């Protein structure tokens, strides 16, 4: 068992969860979450204009309470920190920003394709894909693990589910980076904080890359409408939602874009963080290598450790008390899932990375929410197979350069993870 002490304490005055610059060094976010959980677990965080500030919910128990109660804490006013104008809400709304019956009806369209049983049918394909990726990357000896391994893998699975050609995968990765990385100058075409982003207020994440994704998705939809395909696009365009309201073109655009970005970035970062944790804790890596039956449990600890999504937001639909604070109707309420995953009330010694930790009640995919991650079984399968294939091939692996992180308080991402490997 490997022990890492918690990061050094910070004072409450040093906390600013709205400042993306505080999310690039890999330790500061955890230190901010720690002081908040300890001293002000439901904390009012001011934001620069035009935003109006938000309640930061940092304890596991409170996060779950909010996530479970969509009537009081709605997603209909959007789930990122951006305050989307009334005029653009209908244009930008996806499954993620829909509640109630309509949400259930939209989610049911694809739910069957994401059950544990359905995703298990990808196991052979995934194992082949992983072996191919590793056999190309590992002999290089020294390489960027993100580019050569983590990035390659989730997108190819998604490409298969969408039934799009393999040569399009790099394009899908780039779109995801440009859209989700809208606060990182290395990725964004137009930074979210810039005045220029105003003209893209009608687009998801205010990203012009969204227009390219829409166009790509529409071409696929046009070809597959009325056909007998079983891929995700065919299912979307040829199914009738249970509430009897057909998907509009806008519904399709936003659903398609959500699939492209949700399943790609997150799983990539989960794999990179897990690799880094296993490099930093060679004794834990050795346990998984010696006994692969520990890998599924190890994946849960990796998911807790990685927390690739820092937060999602809700909006209070009525005045409500939480953690001793009075939240007013209309206030933004932000669930810091990553913080919940280090809550010592739920995870004894939370900074200990332990692949045999028991009862890992992490909130990495949300918890008890109608929005609970649709792709969780797929992400879990991808991670399990990745480490089942990777670990037996490795004699040693070390970090061989600077680990670079995405500048984002939304996605906890690793941009570059240079490694040096010795093969068995
Ligand atoms: C480790 C990887 C992943 C992480 C950490 C992650 C995290 C999340 C989180 C936190 C939510 C919101 C939960 C809530 O509000 O309670 C979510 C929703 C969602 N995720 Fe994932 N996700 C991952 C992988 C995937 C994959 C592989 C897909 C599939 C393509 C996917 C598709 C979605 C969709 C469609 C939603 C919206 C569901 C809804 O609104 O009903 N995710 N995910």
TrEMBL record:
InterPro entries in alphabetical order: Cyt_P450, Cyt_P450_B, Cyt_P450_sf
CDD domains the UniProt entry points to: CYP142-like (cd11033)
One Pfam family this sequence matches: p450
Superkingdom, natural source: Bacteria
Family classification: Belongs to the cytochrome P450 family.
Protein name: Cytochrome P450
Native source organism of the sequence: Streptomyces durmitorensis
């Amino acid at each position: 068992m490997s022990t890492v002490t918690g990061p050094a304490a910070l004072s409450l005055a040093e906390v600013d969860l709205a400042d993306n610059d505080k999310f690039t060094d890999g330790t500061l976010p955890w230190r901010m979450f720690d002081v908040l959980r300890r001293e002000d677990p439901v904390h009012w965080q001011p934001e620069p204009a035009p935003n109006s500030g938000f309640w930061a919910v940092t304890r596991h128990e409170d996060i779950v309470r909010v996530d479970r109660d969509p009537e009081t804490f709605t997603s209909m006013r959007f789930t990122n920190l951006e305050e989307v104008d009334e005029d653009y809400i209908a244009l930008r709304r996806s499954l993620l920003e829909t509640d109630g019956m309509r949400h259930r009806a939209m989610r049911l369209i694809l739910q069957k394709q994401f059950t544990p049983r359905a995703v298990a049918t990808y196991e052979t394909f995934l194992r082949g894909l992983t072996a191919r990726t590793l056999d190309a990357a590992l002999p290089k000896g020294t390489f960027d693990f993100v580019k050569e391994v983590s990035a390659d893998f989730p997108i190819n699975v998604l490409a298969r589910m969408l039934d799009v050609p393999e040569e399009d995968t790099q394009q899908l990765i780039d779109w995801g980076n440009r859209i989700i990385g809208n606060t990182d100058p290395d990725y964004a075409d137009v930074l979210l904080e810039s005045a220029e982003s105003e003209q893209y207020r009608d687009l998801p994440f205010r990203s012009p890359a969204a227009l390219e994704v829409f166009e790509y998705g529409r071409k696929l939809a046009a070809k597959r409408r009325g056909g007998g395909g079983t891929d995700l696009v065919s299912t979307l365009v040829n199914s009738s939602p249970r509430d009897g309201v057909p998907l509009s073109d806008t519904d399709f655009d936003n659903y398609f874009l959500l699939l492209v970005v949700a399943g790609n970035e997150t799983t990539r970062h989960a794999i990179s963080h897990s690799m880094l944790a296993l490099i930093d804790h060679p004794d834990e890596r050795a346990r998984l290598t010696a006994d692969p039956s520990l890998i599924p449990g190890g994946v849960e600890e990796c998911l807790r450790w990685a927390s690739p999504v820092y937060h999602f937001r809700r909006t209070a639909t009525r005045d409500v008390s939480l953690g001793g604070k009075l939240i007013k109707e209309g206030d933004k309420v932000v669930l810091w899932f990553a913080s919940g995953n280090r809550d010592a009330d739920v995870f004894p010694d939370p900074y200990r990375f332990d692949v045999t930790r028991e009862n890992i009640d992490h909130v990495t995919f949300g918890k008890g929410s109608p929005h609970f991650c649709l792709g969780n079984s797929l992400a879990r399968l991808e991670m399990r197979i990745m480490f089942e294939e990777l670990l037996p091939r490795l004699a040693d692996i070390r970090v061989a350069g600077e680990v670079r992180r995405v500048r984002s308080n939304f996605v906890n991402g690793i941009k570059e993870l240079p490694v040096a490997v010795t093969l068995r």
